[in-house]
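Problem 12. The chain below contains 101 residues. Write out its predicted structure in C-alpha cell notation.
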Amino acid sequence: MKMKDIQKMMKQAQAMQSQIEADMDSLEAEGSAGGGMVRIVIDGKKNVKSVSIQPDAVDPEDVEMLEDLIQAAFQDAARQADEAISDRMGDMSGGLLGGMQ
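Solution.
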C-alpha cells in the first residue's frame, strides 16, 4: 500500500469520525415502558432530551414502580440509539473498506 493511499484512508477515517459525531448529536431515540406510560427521548450520546410520564403512572404509594418504568424506558431508548448508530457506522465503514481494495 502506498503512502498516498494511507493518507487518503486517514482523511476518510477523520471525515467519518466527524460525520459520526454529528449523527450522534442529531440522532433522537425514544424509549417507552408501561405501555407508553413513561417515554424518554435521548440523543445519540445518551443525553436525555425529554421525559413524559402519564398521570396514571404516578402512584405515591408505589414510587418504586415509577422508578422501574423510568429505568426501563431509558434502557429502551439507549438500545434503539445504539442500534441506529451501529447501522450508520456499518454503512459508513463499507465505504472506507471499499476504498482499501
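Discussion. The mean pLDDT is 87. Students who got a different answer should revisit the alignment rule from Section 12.3.
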